[in-house]
Design a protein that fits this description.
71% of the residues lie in helices and 0% in strands. The chain is mainly α and 272 residues long.
């Protein structure tokens, strides 16, 4: 038996999208969307893919990959309506790019025999930017829409490749202590009512986070993943507090910090 019998295919999905955007007969909500209004959903779907992977939920991953694919179809349809490009152009462009960037797989016998030289991917991307006339500054191609911690690491990695980096973790940790001191000084200035202190607190806090990202980079940690794990740990431990108080017929709002802090410590002893 053919397990694929009756399954929808990519042309079916493209047809669904076209119907949703068909003037007069399509979905009113879909018809009023633009690249700008759909972009947040695209980002959200990418995060949901990452979440399914983090939870090792393969069934959910299938669904989320479908949702993410639909986002590509959505943007492509809107571009087709503007006669800019269509889905086939998107597929063609990425396939050609992947072939071009992997000469050790798709190139000549000599290129395949040479293998993947260190840094080949970055060199290929830089060559493409030069060919297109795009900005070729060291950090110019790091997308501004990335999560801030992720972008900080990418910016630092770019700078490190041209030698702008500390040689080890020790000076990074020293810089972290320095930034923490400056942050504390900015807070003290705000409490003293000094002018522009509010802006200084925000700036120093940003500097502190930037160095934290650098610490993660030197330790080869993903700061976003580490923070997500910390978030989940917080949820587990706070739920424990709620559950323990619920046994007594109370909620956190009917408790106090000392009691909840004790329950928090108790949750830690239970490995939560």
């Amino acid at each position: 038996m053919d397990n694929n019998a009756g399954k929808k295919t990519l042309p079916d999905l493209l047809a669904v999208m076209a119907a949703l955007r068909a003037p007069g007969s399509g979905c009113p909500w879909d018809l009023e969307q633009t690249f700008a209004t759909i972009a947040p959903y695209t980002i959200e779907e990418a995060y949901e893919v990452a979440d399914a992977i983090a939870r090792d939920d393969i069934g959910h991953l299938k669904d989320e990959l479908g949702d993410l694919l639909f986002q590509v179809v959505y943007h492509s349809r809107m571009a087709e309506e503007q006669e800019a490009f269509d889905f086939d152009d998107v597929v063609d462009a990425v396939a050609v790019k992947m072939i071009r960037r992997h000469p050790h797989v798709f190139g000549s016998p000599q290129e395949r025999a040479a293998g993947a030289a260190p840094g080949f991917w970055d060199r290929a991307k830089e060559a493409e930017r030069r060919h297109k006339g795009d900005a070729t500054g060291v950090v110019d191609d790091v997308p501004s829409a990335l999560p801030a911690l992720t972008r900080a690491v990418k910016l630092q990695n770019k700078a490190a490749k041209v030698g702008f980096d500390w040689p080890s973790l020790a000076p990074v940790l020293a810089k972290l202590k320095e930034e923490l001191t400056e942050f504390e000084e900015a807070i003290a200035a705000r409490q003293a009512g000094e002018p522009n202190a509010e802006d200084a607190v925000a700036e120093e806090f940003g500097d502190l986070l930037f160095v934290i990202a650098n610490v993660a980079r030197h330790l080869k940690l993903d700061p976003e993943a580490a923070l997500r794990a910390a978030n989940e740990k917080f949820i587990r431990r706070f739920r424990y507090i709620e559950e323990r108080l619920a046994v007594q017929g109370r909620s956190p709002s009917e408790s106090d910090l000392a009691e909840m802090d004790a329950l928090w410590d108790e949750s830690k002893t239970k490995g939560l």
